[in-house]
Every structure is written in C-alpha cells, then in structure tokens.
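User: tokens in, sequence out, please.
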C-alpha cells in the first residue's frame, strides 16, 4: 500500500496549502520508515520543504530528513550537500526572531523546532569535518544566547551540547559545551544535573582537561541527597582520577565516607579501594588510605580487597611494623568494623613482636607503648565481639597460637583462651582449639619452627588469581551497540585483549599453528581466605584421590617445616589458617565432649614429611607430632627450571619463569615479566602468543596494561602450556606485543626458541 500511495503523497507535498504539505511530509516519514527503498523519491522534496516559512511544515520536513538519513546512506550524503545551509538559516532565524505568540514557550521561540534542527545537524555533522565546520558558528551562537533560567531554554542547551559533542567540533566549542554542563551541575533540578553528569562521562574521553575544571562541582554532587546523582557523580569522579590528582580526590572521598549514608557506603568504599589500588604511587600512601577505609567502613569492604591488603603488607617488609601499630591503634577505636578486625588480628599474629618492641619506626611516626598482654587483649577482643563469625574467630585462634610462640610468657593465658572453644558447636573451631591446645602444651620443642612467620606471599600470583574471578563489565553509560570485544575492561585497569586475526603472528608452517588470545576461564578457588593464607599452593583434589597435597596430613593441617623457598620455588605455608579437608579422626560433636583425640602424635624424630604419602586412617590417641624435631622437612612440590630472556629489543624486555609439577612433565606454568627499557610509558599493552597445534596454550589476564618507563616497574602475566608431544618435539612459540606510546600504536613480535630442555 505504501508503494502504491507514494506517488500521490509526493504530489500532495507540492501543494500550495501549508497544512497539506505538513501532513504529506508526516505521511512520507512513515512511508520511508516502512519502505526504505523509496527514500530516494523524497530526497529532493524534503530539501525543498526546508525553504518554507511555516513552522509546522519545517518541523515535518526536518523529521522527514532525519528519517531519510537513517534509511539511506545516499540520502545522508545528498542532504549533507543540499541541506546544511538551509538548516543553519532556520536555526539562525528561529533563535533571533522576535516574539511570536503562536510559537512562544516560556519566552523561547519554538523550542521544538530548535531541538529537531539540532538533532538533524548532529546526524549530518557526525564524521564529516566540512559540515561540522559550517555548523560551528551557529552552534556557538545558540549556546551563548539561549537563556538557562527556563526549562525550555535548558532543553535547547542540552540538545546543543549533544550536537557539539557528536560532530567534529573545534576544541573551543567543546570547552563551551562542557562549561554549559558545569552550569547544569549547579542547577536545582535533579533531572538537569543527572543528564549533565551522563554527558560529562562521555565527554571525558574527548577533553579530559575541560571536565577536570569542574571537579569541585562534581565532588559536591557525590554528597547530593539524591541517590541516583550520588552514584553517577561517583562514577564520574572515578573516571577523573589520574596520577596528578589521585591524592586530593581520594582525601575528599575518604573524608565524606565518615558521614555518608549507610546505603551509599558500599559503592563509595569500593571506588576508593579501587582508586587506591590502581593509582597508588607508593605503598605507604596506599596502606594509609586502606587503613582509613577499614576504620570508617570496614563492614562494607569486600573480602578480596582486604585479602589484597594483606598480600601488600606481606611484601612490604619495611612497613610491617608501621602497619601492625596503625592497625592496633585503629582497632581500639573501630572494633565494630569486621574487616579491620581480621586484618589487624592477622598482622598482630604475624608481627606481634614488632608491635611490642616498636620495630621499624618511621620518621614521622610516634611511638606507642604496647605490652605482650595488650597484644593478646586485642586478639581476644576479636573473639568476644564476633561470636558468630567463623572466619574472624578462626583467624583469632591462629593469631593466638602464633603469639604463644612470639611471647612464651603468655603461653598459659593463650592456652586458656584457646581451650574455651573445645566445645564449640562449629566443628572447624572445635578442632582448631583442640589441636592448638595440644601444640602449646606438648610440643614446645618444635613450636618456634612450626609457628614461624609466613613466607612472603606472591603478589603477582594473587593478582592473577583475583583477576581471573572478576567478570568483565561494560560501563553503564556506554551504548551497547558501540561496544566491541576490545572495549571490555576489567577492574583495576586490566584490559581484555581484543580478538584479532593472528595469521601473520603464527607463521609456524611446519605445524599448522593455532593461536590462543582469550583469557582463561578457569575459576580460582572460591574460598579466598584459604587462597590468601595459603597462596601458591596447589588446588586440592577430592577426598580419596592420591595426591601429595591431599594425603599429607601434616602439610594439610599445619604446613610443618615449610620454608619460604624450596628448590627456588615458593612452597605453600598455610600457617594454620587453612580449612580442614581430609581429617578422618575429628572429635564427635556430642555433649559432653569426649577426651580429645590428638592427631599430632607418633612420628619419630627421623620422620620426614613427604608429599607422596598415601592417605591412611589415623588411629585414635595418636599424636603425629610426638618426638618430631624442628628439622622436619617437606619434600619439594615443584621442579625448578632456569629463567630465560624470551625477547629483548632496544625498548622491551620479556623474561619467562617456569614451574613444573612433579608427575606431569608435559604441563608447564610460565610467568612472563614485561619491562619497558625506553623513556616513554607504554599504554594499552597487550601480549599475544601462538603455538603449534600439538601444544595447548591458556593465557591468564595480565596484571595491568600500563608498563612504566625506564624499567621502574613491570607488567606480569601467567600462562600454561601442555606439550602433547613431550619428549618428541620441544616447545615453540611466536609472540606479539602491541602498545601505544604517546597515543601512537606500536607493534613488536618475535619467536621464542630458547626454552629449557624438558619442556
């Protein structure tokens, strides 16, 4: 029907009657929408209608032109050549026209025509520099002359800003548009402020400096009474943070955290922690900010955040004394914050002697007087305040056990406190209490070596495990249709590599090579407490499976005798904090509690803990630690392979570290370290690898996508390879690194052929 009636509608559009022209133009709009093939029939008529004086005809003609641009690229090009001048004339006339009662809305002449014309101009100017240049003057005129004290004027200004941000406008015009949005942020109307924040989130990618000028106003919006404005402003502040303003912005957010609404604290806390992790310039500043967040909103801090904090403290040996003193002081005032209590208890257990003896004092730090009894009081406070929190109570018990070794004079008091949980209804706490009591009472000879300080936790490994459990997210302000695989971002600045053709990268003609560029989907252990306090350990199989990790009772329960390194590789030290797994002789949960079964009691002094023992039932009343000397050792869990320099150019160096599990010679885990040797920072860094078809490759997410200049930092990435022809063919790999230097794309690639023998 539309095809049959189209010629008649065209005839009516040439009518002398304005009303008929208007209705015919509206009908044409619907015809083009139904039958896009007919768009070329209406292009000339639509352009001619823009010369009319009647506003009704003009609005209909502009709407028809808009529909034609959507329906046909040919129509879009035609209207760019023939309509820009007419649209500029219409906009100039209507914006400077005198008062006309039939078109006036709150003192503004025909705001509806204003908005229709601005939308069409945005479509015509998008991606076309010539059209955009022709529009610049009239857009500047509308932006400066339109009054903003009425809603109609604000609607025109909003559409004008959208048009300026959508076309190839000059930098001065964009600054003018962003300044208008800054005025919107001071408006009393919540809707106007909200739409201004939305546009600013898009504008920050175009002109960051112009948006930064309104930082103070945006921060005030974070404190707004309206929840929607608060959340949107917080997202915008997060985008505004950079290396130069991170400290003042973080201070403002932390100060507001103390008075923020409880419902908003969770979002605010998450953003502050993310900013501190992503932009921390030194560890001391990072620790200070995290301690403040834990003190003010510890209830809202997620587990992975305080786990990461413990990893950082473990690696910052020069700040461990400062950390434990700061946490102890905060615990005296903010003991109701659960996450603060957990981190403080862990630190007191590990570094209690530093707390008491004021070890590692910083220059600006004031000394505090803490006795051994005070340190125990702090841990006991955690036990008493969180009777239903199994994780906190378990960490407190571990800390008490470690303090019995740090402070021998407090052993009896520790034993009394620990024994209070022997009848606990939670089996985990009951078992810890019984076993820890046995260690304190019967095994003084090995207690110091058993309860030595945890080895340094592998920060890079933890970050990779943490990133692998984080779902890729798309910011809410981005249109879904504009998102490509390369646009997906992980939190903390980790970018998911774009899936790109790798035919040129492979170049392994002898073996039809296949490439793998997607991140591993293997889920890390869901129990992050276990993962954190036993980082570097192997995933335990199901009960009954023959495995060195699962069948070795001493390794499973206590990590006895483990040292920071074995054969050059990190050995897991669960330090009594790991969950119970394969204990077959746990005490029955009945009342009254029977005599405790001591699982730690009949090893001779010559017994060594081997990772290859088979799991057997432990007879009752057997103490597996009885007579065990402090020299007990744990056999190595991994084969060590020498590190190699996989790639080196004048600007980039890549080293590979290798790990192999015993019993699986075909599987290797590789830890790559990327170091920037140039004087310019690399951004959007992406590593890709390709291997022959007999090798399986799985890449984990990188620790970041920014490589600092002059070797002052590095990016790490782990991946695993399985050589299905192990012993017959060696590993072979081609690698490619893409990055940007000062906005310019760079690409380097090479072949790795110097893998150690046996891979």
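Assistant: Sequence out:
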């Amino acid at each position: 029907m539309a095809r049959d009636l189209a010629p008649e509608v065209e005839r009516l559009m040439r009518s002398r009657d304005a009303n008929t022209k208007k209705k015919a133009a509206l009908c044409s709009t619907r015809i083009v929408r139904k039958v896009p093939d007919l768009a070329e029939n209406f292009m000339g008529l639509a352009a001619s209608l823009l010369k009319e004086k009647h506003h009704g005809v003009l609005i209909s003609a502009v709407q028809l032109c808009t529909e034609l641009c959507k329906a046909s690229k040919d129509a879009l090009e035609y209207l760019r050549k023939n309509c820009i001048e007419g649209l500029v004339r219409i906009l100039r006339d209507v914006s400077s026209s005198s008062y006309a009662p039939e078109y006036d809305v709150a003192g503004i002449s025909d705001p509806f025509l204003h908005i229709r014309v601005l939308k069409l101009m945005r479509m015509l100017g998008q991606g076309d520099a010539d059209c955009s240049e022709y529009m610049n003057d009239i857009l500047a005129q509308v932006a400066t002359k339109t009054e903003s004290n009425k809603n109609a004027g604000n609607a025109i200004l909003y559409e004008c800003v959208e048009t300026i941000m959508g076309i190839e406008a000059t930098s001065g015009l964009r600054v003018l548009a962003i300044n208008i949005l800054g005025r919107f942020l001071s408006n009393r109307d919540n809707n106007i402020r909200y739409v201004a924040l939305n546009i600013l989130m898009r504008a920050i990618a175009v002109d960051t400096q112009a948006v930064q000028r309104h930082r103070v106003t945006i921060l005030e919006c974070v404190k707004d009474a309206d929840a929607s404005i608060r959340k949107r402003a917080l997202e915008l502040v997060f985008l505004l943070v950079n290396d130069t303003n991170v400290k003042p912005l973080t201070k403002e957010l932390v100060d507001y955290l103390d008075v923020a609404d409880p419902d908003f604290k969770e979002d605010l806390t998450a953003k502050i922690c993310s900013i501190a992790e992503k932009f921390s310039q030194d560890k001391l500043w990072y620790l200070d900010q995290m301690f403040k967040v834990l003190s003010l909103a510890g209830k809202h801090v997620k587990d992975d955040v305080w786990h990461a904090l413990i990893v950082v403290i473990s690696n910052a040996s020069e700040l461990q004394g400062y950390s434990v003193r700061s946490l102890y002081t905060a615990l005296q005032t903010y003991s109701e914050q659960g996450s603060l209590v957990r981190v403080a208890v862990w630190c007191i257990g590990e570094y209690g002697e530093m707390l008491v003896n004021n070890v590692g004092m910083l220059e600006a730090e004031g000394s505090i007087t803490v006795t051994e009894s005070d340190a125990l009081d702090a841990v006991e406070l955690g036990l008493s305040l969180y009777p239903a929190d199994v994780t906190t109570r378990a960490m407190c018990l571990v800390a008490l056990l470690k303090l019995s070794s740090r402070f021998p004079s407090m052993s009896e008091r520790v034993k009394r406190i620990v024994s209070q949980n022997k009848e606990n209804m939670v089996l985990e706490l009951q078992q810890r209490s019984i076993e820890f009591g046995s260690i304190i009472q019967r095994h003084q000879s090995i207690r110091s070596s058993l309860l030595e300080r945890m080895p340094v936790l592998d920060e890079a490994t933890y970050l990779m495990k943490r990133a692998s459990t984080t779902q890729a997210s798309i910011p809410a302000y981005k249109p879904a249709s504009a998102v490509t695989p390369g646009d997906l971002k992980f939190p903390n600045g980790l970018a998911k590599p774009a899936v790109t053709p790798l035919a040129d990268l492979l170049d392994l003609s002898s073996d039809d090579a296949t490439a793998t560029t997607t991140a591993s989907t293997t889920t890390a252990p869901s129990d992050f407490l276990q993962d954190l306090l036993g980082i570097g350990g192997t995933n335990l199989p199901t009960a009954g499976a023959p495995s060195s990790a699962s069948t070795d009772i001493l390794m499973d329960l206590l990590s006895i005798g483990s040292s920071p390194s074995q054969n050059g590789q990190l050995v897991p030290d669960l330090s009594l904090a790991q969950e119970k797994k394969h204990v077959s002789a746990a005490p029955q949960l009945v009342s009254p509690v029977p005599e405790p079964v001591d699982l730690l009691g009949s090893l001779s002094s010559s017994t060594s803990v081997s990772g290859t023992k088979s799991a057997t039932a432990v007879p009752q009343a057997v103490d597996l630690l009885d007579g065990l000397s402090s020299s007990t050792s744990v056999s190595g869990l991994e084969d060590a392979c020498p590190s190699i320099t996989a790639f080196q150019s004048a600007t980039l160096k890549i080293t590979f570290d290798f790990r192999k599990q015993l019993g699986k010679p075909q599987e290797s885990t590789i830890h790559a370290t990327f170091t920037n040797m140039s004087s310019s920072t690399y951004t959007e860094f992406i590593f890709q690898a390709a291997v022959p078809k007999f090798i399986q490759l799985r890449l984990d997410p990188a620790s970041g996508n920014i490589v600092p200049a002059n070797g002052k930092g590095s990016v790490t990435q782990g991946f695993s390879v399985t050589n299905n022809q192990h012993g017959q063919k060696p590993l072979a790999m081609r690698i490619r690194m893409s990055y940007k230097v000062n906005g310019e794309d760079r690409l380097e690639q090479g072949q790795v052929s110097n893998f150690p023998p046996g891979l």
